[in-house]
């Protein structure tokens, strides 16, 4: 049996952290929590359940997760968010995988709970994620807030049966708030990485998000919840590209102002000469 470190990043997760830790205890040899100075009882609860808690200022999802996995004692990392847990089938799959750890990375599906119901179709499922991996050949990458594991070339990924259960949205308001927040993070990240928006992206990408999720990916099979999710996902895409569009124009106007102000002294000097 090979040792595995469970790694969780947190900020004000007192409502979720106990469930997450109880779940990973079934497969992990140690539990590392990297907290971003929570103001609730997250740290207290985590320590009472046997987790090793470190605290560090939040540096973005990617940076925080890369730091967190380096704090672990073991090379194989099981990474979960605080609002996630392992279902019984996935626990068994992970226990069996630990016996040999024949692969350097393992993928598993994630199933999100919306207002008390697990969503089984659309853009939200199966939502496969690499969450068990050897940190010697893996790093967190991507564009915030959409972090992902990047493996060194040549390593295969094995898919494990079972689901990560994602308890993210208790109310419709939770979904609206989260998608608005994530669209702001995504827009800033896209801009920082040289991506730009335009009217075609603003008009057509939200429409495609709805059609793809609700029709082609079967979101309609989740009933009214599926329709709500498809509409809100399209709205998130709309917000992301409109915020990016606004951001690039603000930056452009600021740059124009700086260039104009920088040119003024030389113009005054020329007039005096």
Description of the molecule:
By secondary structure, the protein is of the alpha/beta class. Helices cover 47% and strands 25% of the residues. The chain contains seven helices and eleven strands. It has helices spanning 17-24, 42-48, 61-70, 88-100, 172-192, 199-216, 223-272, and strands at residues 5-10, 30-35, 52-55, 76-81, 84-86, 105-114, 117-118, 129-134, 138-143, 146-151, 157-169. The longest helix has 50 residues, at 223-272. The chain is globular and about 65 Å long.
Structural class of the helix and strand makeup? alpha/beta
| Overall number of strands | 11
Q: Which word captures the global form?
A: globular
Mean pLDDT: 93
Query: How can the largest sheet be summarized?
Result: 9 strands, mixed
The number of helical elements comes to: 7
- The succession of helices and strands, N to C, reads EHEHEHEEHEEEEEEHHH
Instruction: Identify low-pLDDT runs.
Output: 268-273
Strand content: 15-25%
Radius of gyration based on Cα positions: 22 Å
Span between termini: 83 Å
Helix residue percentage: 40-55%
Give the SSE layout.
Elements: E1 5-10, H1 17-24, E2 30-35, H2 42-48, E3 52-55, H3 61-70, E4 76-81, E5 84-86, H4 88-100, E6 105-114, E7 117-118, E8 129-134, E9 138-143, E10 146-151, E11 157-169, H5 172-192, H6 199-216, H7 223-272
Parallel strand pairs: 1-2, 1-4, 2-3, 6-11
Antiparallel strand pairs: 4-8, 5-11, 6-7, 6-8, 9-10
């Amino acid at each position: 049996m090979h040792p595995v470190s469970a790694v969780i990043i947190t900020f004000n997760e007192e409502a979720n952290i106990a469930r997450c830790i109880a779940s990973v205890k079934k497969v992990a040899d140690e539990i590392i929590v990297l907290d971003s100075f929570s103001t609730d009882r997250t740290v207290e609860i985590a320590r009472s359940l046997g987790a090793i808690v470190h605290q560090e200022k939040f540096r973005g999802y990617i940076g925080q997760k890369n730091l967190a996995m380096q704090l672990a004692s073991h090379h194989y990392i099981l990474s979960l968010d605080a609002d996630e847990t392992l279902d019984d089938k996935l626990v068994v799959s992970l226990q069996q995988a630990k016996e040999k750890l024949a692969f350097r990375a393992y993928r598993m599906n994630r199933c999100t709970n919306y207002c008390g119901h697990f969503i089984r179709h659309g853009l939200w499922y199966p939502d496969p994620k690499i969450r068990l991996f050897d940190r010697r050949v893996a790093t967190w990458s991507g564009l915030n807030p959409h972090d992902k594991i990047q493996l060194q070339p040549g390593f295969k990924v094995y898919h494990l049966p079972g689901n990560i259960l994602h308890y993210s949205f208790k109310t419709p308001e939770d979904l609206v708030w989260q998608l608005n927040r994530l669209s702001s993070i995504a827009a800033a990240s896209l801009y920082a990485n040289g991506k730009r928006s335009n009217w075609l992206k603003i008009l057509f990408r939200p429409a495609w998000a709805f059609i793809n999720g609700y029709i082609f990916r079967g979101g309609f099979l989740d009933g009214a919840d599926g329709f709500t999710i498809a509409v809100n996902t399209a709205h998130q895409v709309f917000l992301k590209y409109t915020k990016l569009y606004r951001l690039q124009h603000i930056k452009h106007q600021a740059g124009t102002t700086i260039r104009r102000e920088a040119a003024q002294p030389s113009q005054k000097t020329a007039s005096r000469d």
